[in-house]
Design a protein that fits this description.
The complex is a heterodimer of chains A (about 250) and B (about 60). In chain A, about 75% of the residues lie in helices and about 0% in strands. With about 250 residues, chain A is mainly α. The longest helix of chain B is centred in the middle third of the chain and has 45 residues, at about 15-60. Classes of the chains: A mainly alpha (about 250), B mainly alpha (about 60).
Chain lengths: ~250, ~60
């Protein structure tokens, strides 16, 4: 990384600089999220085939289920990266990003489990089975909950960030377990729909693009809502500083 | 049955499909509400604390 780049990163790592920039980009990401959602839902409900050879109409759950499951894993990886940067280089802004990502990650994990249950019932005949994919995804939900509870249990924000950051980093081991579980073990859960190094597409193109569009919608939504949450976190943690006092209308 | 009721019926699987999409929409709505409210609450609280401090300093 060049000198110029490191200057840019230093600039963004200051909560005071990050706060207004985040505020400016939120409406753009929210707008993109809305557009991708509309396109994604249109593909899912109108363009994708109504039934598959082995799945009836309920398979349309795939579009929200896969997107939510991808997000649940991806957000965890990003969250633990921020936690790692915060832990190693002691960057407050990084710790705050990890904190802001956790609730959205937990929400998507719950949605993945919930939609999975409602898909499992008509297709397997059971809402829940203790299969490797489902169980490891449930553990992911507990990791998010653990991360958030640990933070709220410790009063000092720096100590809270260190303890929960460590948990986040150790927990990252669960991500490859979730992802490869359908390959490593004999699971009731179906295998990859979109696989790495796959030359031929496993699913119909409209299904593939529906999943991709819904995933993009979830990504844009996540960026918007996490930036909004991190702004509140900044206000909370920087409340003693002159710029926050000025922002909320107090003269120092 | 007309096209609209057909659409919501989803071949008899409406409960599972709308249960999935509905709960997702509900969770997203709740999350947005909580984030927006959180920002408002903290801004108000900080402003109030600031006023209290100013009054304490003035008297």
């Amino acid at each position: 990384m060049g000198f110029k780049n490191s200057i840019i990163w230093m600039y963004f790592s200051s909560p005071r600089n990050f706060y207004p920039i985040a505020g400016k980009v939120i409406p753009w990401f929210a707008g993109l999220a809305a557009i991708f959602t509309i396109i994604g839902l249109y593909i899912s409900f109108f363009l994708a085939p109504p039934v598959l050879s082995d799945q009836k109409e309920y398979y349309v759950i795939i579009f929200i289920h896969v997107a939510a499951a991808w997000m649940s894993m991806f957000i965890y990886v990003v969250m633990s990266m921020y936690a790692f940067i915060g832990l190693v280089w002691n960057i407050k802004m990084s710790e705050m990003m990890a904190t802001a990502l956790a609730p959205t990650g937990a929400m998507f994990t719950f949605v993945a489990l919930w939609t999975g249950a409602l898909w499992g019932r008509p297709s397997w005949g059971a809402y829940w089975v203790w299969d490797a994919r489902l169980t490891s995804e449930l553990i992911l939900l507990f990791l998010y909950i653990g991360f958030m509870s640990l933070q709220s249990a410790i009063d000092d924000p720096r100590r809270a960030a260190r303890a929960s950051g460590l948990l986040a980093i150790v927990g990252v081991i669960n991500i490859p377990i979730i992802y490869f579980s359908v390959r490593w073990w004999n699971t009731l859960h179906q295998g990859f729909s979109v696989a790495p190094n796959q030359t031929t597409q496993l699913v119909d193109p409209s299904i593939f693009w529906g999943m991709i569009t819904m995933a993009l919608a979830c990504w844009m939504y996540t960026i918007a809502v996490v930036l909004a949450r991190v702004r509140t976190e900044i206000l909370q943690r920087e409340r003693q500083t002159a710029w926050v006092q000025e922002l909320v209308g107090n003269q120092k | 049955m007309n096209a609209i009721t057909d659409f919501f019926h989803i071949g008899g699987y409406g409960f599972y499909v709308w249960g999935s999409y509905g709960v997702t929409a509900l969770f997203i709505a709740i999350e947005i509400y909580l984030v927006v409210r959180g920002k408002r609450v903290i801004t108000k609280r900080l402003a109030r604390l600031g006023r209290l401090n100013n009054n304490a300093n003035a008297s």
